[in-house]
Amino acid sequence: MPTIIRFGVFELDLENQELRKAGLLIKLRPQAFKLLALLVTRADKLVSRDEIRQAIWDTETNVDFEQGVNRCIKEIRSGLSDDAKTPRYIKAVHRRGYTFIASIHGLRRPPVVKQEIQESQLTTHSHEASITTAAISPDGRYLAYSDDAEVYVKLIETGETHPLRTLQSCRVAGLSWFPDSTKLLASGEDWRGNALWVVSIFGGVLWKVTHNAGDVAAVLEGSRIAFIGGNGKEVWLMSGGGEDPHRIFVGEEGDKLGLVPISDGPKLLFSRLRVGAYQFEVRIECLDLDTGQVTAVLADPRLRGSCVSPGGRLIYALAETASRQSDVNLWEVQFDVKTGHVAGQPRRLTNWIGSNLYCLSTTRDGNRLAFLKGPYQANVFVGELEEKERALKNSLRLTLDDRNNLPTAWTADSKAILFHSDRNGKWEIFKQDLNERTAELIVTGSEDCRAARMSPDAAWILYFARNRDRLWSWSEPLTLMRLPVAGGSPSVVLSERRLYSVRCARPPATVCVLGERRLKHVVFYAFDPLHGKGQGLTTTAVDLPLDQNHWDLSPDGSMIALLAEGDGGRIRILSLPGGSTHDVTVNGWSGFQSMDWSASGKGLYVSSQSAMQSTLLHIDLEGAAHIMRQQMGHFHTWGIPSPNGKYLAFLEWTAASNVWMIENL
């Protein structure tokens, strides 16, 4: 029996149980497909209703067979656009059954010789020169990649590598190839800000196509350039020479967009990271460049990157579920370029352990896939404060394991740091003295335990607990716990859906404040570690991201400072009680991500994030900024001062990413 049977414009794939019309998938329920396959394989012969019942349903199945058959026939006719009165495909024989009357011909699927996937490492940089972006050329001959210093082009077959000196003065964040494999589009920063450049790999001729562009760009079919603008919320399109730039899509508040090039037809895939009230979403969507219509392709908060190979294979990187959330692997699914929808079920390509995958690109024939692979690791660093809390010296890494460690608080005596770590497969809270090389586990449980803070009297450790599978769900409650410092068991303080974070002042103040995240605003309440939430203190109209580090309570408990997404270089100060507000403008800086008050209460430690680097700043209450620490790459950081004001614990990342390639996908 042929595995594919054709009739008219239709193909019936018996092996994969798919019906296609002119190449487009027609969705049928399993019972309807079984019935169609039965009729087609017995074309020109009457198939009785009793035969249909025996073939499709088990004798023990509790179902109304007559109605079931009628529903299946109706569904099949709808998929085939067949008319019961004037049938072209399925003819009903009254009270007896059905006959498939169209002409058919079959095609046996040739045996597939599955080649083994071959994996090879194309670069061997150390973590001091970790690769930040890369792209393989459409013809598969060249690899373009960048580290913190330069952009390089490598001839894959020989390994011969040359730096592109013309981009030496630019900080490059993204790379895309033009279809001819001789020119590159580079996105990044120069002295004027964000920019896009075109550079020839032969001779190094460089020209800027625009200076008003975001940090992501892609070269489309016909050498058109798509790029992100509008603070990460807009998609723009222009010619390969930079002419006629125009906006083609505008996202919503809280969106962070990225681009996925596709070479087949007038389509553009883009990723949408959406952080809003009670939601954290990562989606891949398809934009029709002719009509402007947007269709959903994939949605999963674990998505890390994607690309589309010819023939509509959507290859994407997906983080594993708990407890392997730090592992990322490759998957693929068939993507219908004409409709913009996924066709079929996803298929796992790899099952690697211990690596992050991102920055995917593929060749024109789809045989080679290049990507960045390597671990990202969060570490706790400690430095000594000087120059009125505005500078660091003698900074050292405190946590020396190879897992993620994120600092959140100090002990009252300024001798140890509290941090949460996934070193045991889930988030737990540890304490480590400044003079020790190992940490002590102090909080564990069946759920993830994070974000420890000390109560003002140093009697309690406050922290949040949530099931890891619900980590990005705002529809599930978040539980605030307390643990006695003197020893004993943890207990629940309160559990609510809107809980955001808690902050406490330092002695002699006794104030704690609880933040609740509402739609487009945050409500602050008085808080007591023993009695829970008290009276409301103030409300402010901001839409804070999911991260809990976007506000802090001053050491004396008199002020709240917070960051509002989209507010650029402004910090809002709320006075307590009363809630009067004023904004502090920080000239020359934006992209603020986290904040903590200095121990003296005279300034704030604020992180600023751009496409190229993360910067930890000290900002005084007049808006003057001083750089404390900088790291190349798109990393989140924050700094927490010790109660005595002598030290700063801060988050810093290590990365050891290199370019890998797999063939025979």
The residue fraction in helices comes out at under 10%
The biggest beta sheet, please?
Answer: 5 strands, antiparallel
Fill in the CATH topology of the largest domain: Neuraminidase
**In CATH, what is the class of the largest domain?**
Mainly Beta
Query: Which sequence of strands runs across the widest sheet?
Result: 4-3-2-1-8
- CATH superfamily of the largest domain, by name, is TolB, C-terminal domain
Could you walk me through the main structural features you see in this protein, from its secondary elements to its overall organization?
- This protein is mainly beta.
- The protein has 3 domains: 4-107, Arc Repressor Mutant, subunit A (Orthogonal Bundle); 118-374, Methylamine Dehydrogenase, Chain H, CATH 2.130.10; 376-655, TolB, C-terminal domain (Neuraminidase), CATH 2.120.10.
- 5% of the residues lie in helices and 50% in strands.
- The protein is built from 3 helices and 56 strands.
- A hairpin with a 5-residue loop joins β30 and β31.
